[in-house]
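Sequence, please.
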């Protein structure tokens, strides 16, 4: 009960009390008048004094007194009840919020104080009504302006109220069923959240599908809230629908896109791995991984990518992968332990702010084996070309051995003992020349052996010296001088020393033939018979140059010089594979090889290899 209603009841009770007292007062007055009338009519027999009062006089007197009494009662009643009636009427209109004129409480007395109190209550009510009106206006604005569909429904799922957006979207009318208006159904939904809220008094959330009045499909997230009366009973349920149609369409497009790229990912004809950049653990891989390695996805995902490397090469390639460098050639093992060769191309990507290495693994076993066969054939051809030089090199230690043997034979025939110092010198010559011959033979065996394709840390200067030692006799026979310009403080590169030696020998063969061709057609001085071997390094690469003083190369030939089977030599003087093999080996180690030349100015071949542990080119 409000303060206004309570005060109104009190005032009504007070008014009833005053009316009762006034009525009692009038009754007493009438009783007194009747008593006087009886006394006057009966008279006093013991004192007969004065003139006799007639009955008419008494009746007139009584009527006058009664009139005066009634008039007095009316005046008193008006004075008492009118302020109270005004107060009650004021309270009544105040409680309804229809009248806000303050009562006049300037008169002294209890009614003035009562009017002041009533005015204070009216001010409080007016303030509360203003706050209520503001809240109602705000809630109405929210109800109408919120960017979602809002309805209030009864237990029969009929619309009691709905906001402006709902009316615009569906052209709805009150008392229509919700499921018919915006869900296009003839009966309630199977899992109706409004019905659940009526049942348990709790909010519920679901996803619903429906149609707008233009027939376009829609998707909503539906939430409900109970509306209760004073007793707590759920009398209605508010249902709020947030349109997620665009989100659903995007989800469908995303699913299609994911399916599309998943199909592409799985059908790439090479093995593709998604690796954690920090740990190199496999996060995902495509279907071709299983075909290449024999593992199923579950056996690889979560494991380190290094499990696929051959044990003797894992550490070297781990360093390369951590440096985000491509691996031009690596030895991997399948599930059965069989070795095969792969190239690994690495790309850095970021997924959810996490660095990922996308590693593309290509099986190059057939190509490597074919290259090995070609290289081996080229080596055999080189050894064949070097036969004369090797024979000359072996003849020298053999001649020394023969000379020493003849010396000992003469001494034996003469039954003479050789001088101890002379014997020591002869023995030393035998040992030195045997070692020299052994080195020549061992070097030929190593050169002719198939490489194991295992990359290790290699010093380019050492490989270049070995190649020149092996091929040097060929140059001496042709009176070709070698000039050295080496950078002694040189970092290592990752390569197979035997394969790298093959590159340098092929370049030396090419330089020798170029000088021979030039000097075959004209007189040459010693300055025309020079090969310069130069090395240098920078922050990321080791550079090797092989420079000859041959006739040079035309621009047209420079563009084709590294093509397989391309040769400018006469038929029978070469296979045309030497420089092509150089190109393949160098690029296998992520290096480059170029030639710079002009006619009559010689040629300069430049081999560039990345320093071990440096980032790959372009990274």
């Amino acid at each position: 009960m409000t303060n206004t209603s309570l005060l109104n009841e009190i005032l009504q009770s007070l008014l009833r009390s005053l009316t009762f007292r006034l009525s009692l007062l009038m009754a007493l007055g009438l009783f007194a008048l009747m008593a006087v009338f009886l006394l006057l009519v009966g008279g006093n027999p013991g004192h007969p004094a004065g003139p006799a009062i007639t009955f008419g006089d008494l009746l007139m007197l009584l009527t006058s007194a009664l009139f005066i009494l009634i008039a007095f009662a009316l005046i008193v009643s008006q004075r008492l009840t009118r302020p109270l009636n005004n107060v009650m009427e004021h309270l009544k209109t105040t409680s309804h919020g229809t009248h806000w004129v303050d009562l006049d409480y300037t008169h002294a007395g209890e009614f003035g104080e009562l009017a002041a109190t009533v005015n204070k209550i009216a001010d409080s009510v007016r303030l509360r009504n203003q706050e209520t009106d503001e809240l109602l206006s705000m809630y109405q604005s929210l109800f109408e302006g919120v960017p979602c569909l809002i309805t209030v429904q009864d237990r029969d799922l009929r619309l009691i109220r709905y906001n402006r957006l709902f009316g615009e979207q569906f052209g709805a009318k009150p008392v229509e069923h919700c499921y018919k208006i915006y869900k296009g159904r003839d009966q309630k939904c199977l899992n109706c959240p409004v019905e659940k809220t009526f049942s348990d008094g709790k909010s519920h959330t679901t996803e619903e599908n429906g149609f707008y009045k233009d027939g376009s499909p829609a998707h909503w997230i539906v939430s409900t809230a109970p509306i209760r009366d004073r007793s707590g009973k759920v009398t209605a349920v508010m249902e709020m629908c947030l349109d997620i149609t665009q989100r659903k369409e995007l989800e469908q497009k995303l699913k299609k896109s994911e399916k599309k790229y998943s199909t592409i990912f799985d059908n790439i004809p090479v093995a593709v791995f998604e690796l954690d950049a920090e740990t190199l653990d496999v996060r995902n891989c495509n279907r071709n991984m299983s075909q290449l390695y024999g593992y199923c996805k579950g056996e690889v995902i979560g494991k380190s990518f290094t499990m696929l490397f051959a044990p003797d090469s894992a550490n070297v390639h781990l360093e390369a992968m951590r440096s985000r460098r491509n691996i031009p050639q690596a030895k991997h093992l399948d599930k059965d332990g069989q070795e095969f060769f792969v190239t690994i191309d690495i790309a850095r990507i970021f997924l959810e702010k996490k660095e990922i290495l996308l590693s593309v693994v290509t099986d190059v076993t057939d190509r490597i084996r074919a290259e090995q066969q070609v290289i081996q054939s080229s080596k055999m051809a080189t050894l064949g070309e070097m036969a004369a030089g090797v024979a000359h090199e072996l003849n020298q230690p053999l001649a020394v051995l023969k000379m020493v043997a003849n010396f000992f034979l003469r001494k034996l025939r003469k039954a003479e003992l050789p001088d101890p110092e002379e014997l020591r010198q002869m023995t030393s010559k035998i040992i030195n020349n045997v070692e020299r011959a052994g080195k020549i033979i061992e070097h030929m065996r190593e050169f002719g052996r198939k490489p194991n394709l295992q990359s290790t840390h290699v010093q380019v200067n050492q490989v270049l010296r070995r190649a020149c030692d092996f091929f040097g006799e060929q140059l001496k026979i042709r009176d070709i001088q070698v000039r050295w310009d080496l950078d002694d403080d040189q970092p290592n590169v990752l390569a197979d020393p035997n394969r790298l030696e093959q590159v340098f020998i092929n370049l030396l063969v090419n330089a020798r033939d170029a000088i021979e061709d030039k000097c075959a057609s004209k007189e040459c001085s010693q300055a025309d018979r020079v090969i310069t071997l130069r090395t240098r390094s920078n922050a990321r690469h080791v550079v090797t140059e092989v420079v000859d003083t041959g006739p040079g190369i035309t621009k047209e030939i420079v563009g084709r010089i590294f093509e397989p089977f391309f040769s400018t030599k006469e038929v029978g003087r070469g296979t045309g594979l030497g420089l092509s093999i150089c190109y393949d080996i160098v690029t296998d180690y992520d290096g480059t090889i170029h030639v710079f030349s002009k006619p009559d100015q010689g040629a300069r071949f430049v081999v560039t290899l990345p320093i071990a542990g440096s980032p790959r080119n372009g990274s």
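Residues 22 and 74 are 9 Å apart (CA to CA).
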